[in-house]
Request: fold
Amino acid sequence: MAEAFARTHGSDVLEAQSAGLAPALAVAPLTHVVMLEKDIDLGDFYPKEMGRGIDRVGGGMDGVDLIINMSGYELQLRNPVAVEEWDVPDPIGEPEEVFREVRDEIERRVLVLIERLRSRKTVGSETVTAAVRVDSRKRPTRQ
Reply:
């Protein structure tokens, strides 16, 4: 959700890439449903492991300015990069209304981040680009 909102609302100030510590095999069907309610189609999005493009222990942080961590776990990063912790519940296994609440909270936080990045731009400067890695796995999936 966060990557989709970031790409939709903030492509002028950031380049978002989502990754999880233990990603699911596919995007949850209810995630597709609630995002379509916001006119965002997740057709090409899929869960990616954090190790792809961002290595928690062994480097691989080229071009990453900020990591948004929603995992609930401390990230073990070798290279220094800013990490922002977002306490957002995992809606997996919850009713559709919880998915909507989580969606709206993520959108709100992404919009605040985008506004913060836009306010850092100076007149006549190039657009600030931040690669935002988002771990959307708050806790293990409930069965």
Notes: DSSP finds three helices and four strands in the chain. The longest strand covers residues 130-135. Confidence is low (pLDDT under 50) at residues 55-60, 122-133, 135-143. Residues 2-135 form a domain with the Rossmann fold fold (CATH 3.40.50.2300).
